[in-house]
Write a structure and sequence with these properties.
Length: 246
């Protein structure tokens, strides 16, 4: 049994990762800025016999992250697994992206990831074992019109993955990232409702595997990456993208 901290655990792929980690016996800290969503997922886990705590946290706020990590340590134990799925997206033509919007994107998707890793990793250093999975995006691999701010923030996650992997490999800690594409979650449905993405049917037809991804697809990748067996796998990007970017 490990103690796992999952940011963005209240929705979408973060929720799926929480449920799967709980099924394998981990104690799960469901971290999300949406307190009700986090509590709902924690309750799902507890009612299935698992161990979970919900922690309302804005990952872009360092003090909140540090407070949350301290609570997880006190209530569940030292953190061994960290999955960062908290994120925001946006589709804005480049010339209309304000400095504030650009900085907000970085604050949540990149600086928020930095905060969580730096706050949680001392437990992994102390125990000589750790698994960190950062959620990036295929948009950082291929770019996208209207996605300069989002793709830039996720590109930073790729660079962070590689640097952390090399720095912490000698200490028994692996750091990898999952680069999803077209995963059917509330974020994806919201972008579709706003007219920024094509219909499920059209998008599925374009996919080599002829369907969109699910939270379970992401959880399957995450569960491998956080396993003991994945100790020779670090600094890598796992593209969970239906073959849409190879
Ligand atoms: N859905 C996709 O197709 C797709 C593709 C590529 C990358 N991603 C990335 O995957 C991750 C998860 O996305 P999802 O599709 O599950 O989205 P989602 O919106 O369903 O879930 C994201 C969760 O993050 C939380 N969150 C947002 N800002 C936060 C903050 N500042 N602090 C704490 N929690 C915060 C939200 O409340 C929400 O519960 C995101 O980082 C997203 O950028 C998604």
């Amino acid at each position: 049994m490990k103690v796992a901290m999952v940011t963005g655990g209240g929705s979408g792929m973060g929720r799926s990762v929480c449920l799967h980690l709980a099924q394998r016996g981990d104690a799960v800290a469901v971290v999300d800025r949406d307190a009700d969503a986090a509590e709902h997922v924690a309750e799902e886990i507890r009612s299935a016999g698992g161990t979970a705590a919900a922690l309302e946290t804005d990952v872009s706020d360092r003090a909140q992250v540090d407070e949350t990590v301290a609570k997880i340590r006190a209530d569940l134990g030292p953190i061994g697994v960290l999955v960062t799925s908290a994120g925001i997206s946006g589709f804005t033509p480049f010339m209309e992206i304000t400095t504030e919007a650009f900085e907000q994107m970085l604050a949540v998707n990149l600086t928020g990831t930095f905060h969580c890793v730096q706050s949680a990793i001392p437990d992994m250093i102390d125990s000589g074992w750790g698994r960190i999975v950062l959620v990036s995006s295929s948009s950082a691999q291929r770019g996208g019109p209207g996605m300069a701010h989002y793709a830039s923030s996720k590109g930073g996650v790729f660079a962070l993955t590689k640097s952390l992997a090399l720095e912490f490999a000698p200490l028994g800690i692996t750091v990898n990232n999952i680069a999803p594409s077209s995963i059917e979650t509330p974020m994806h449905a919201g972008a579709r409702a706003a007219g920024k993405l094509s219909s499920v049917e059209e998008a599925s037809a374009r996919m080599p595997v002829k369907r969109l991804g699910t939270g379970d697809d992401i959880a399957a990748a995450a569960l491998f990456l956080v396993s003991d067996e994945a100790s020779y796998f670090t600094g890598q990007t796992m593209g969970v993208n239906g073959g849409s970017y190879i």
